[in-house]
Amino acid sequence: MTVTTLDPRSALIVVDLQKGIVSLPTAHPAGDVVKQVRKLADAFRGHGLPVVLVNVAGGAPGRTEQQRPRRDYAADWAELIPELDRQPQDHLVTKHTLGAFTNTDLDAWLKAAGVTQVVVAGIATSIGVETTARQAYELGFNVTLATDAMTDLQADPHAYSITHVFPRIGETGTTQEIITLLERSA
Question: Where's the Isochorismatase-like domain (predicted)?
Answer without folding.
Answer: 10-177
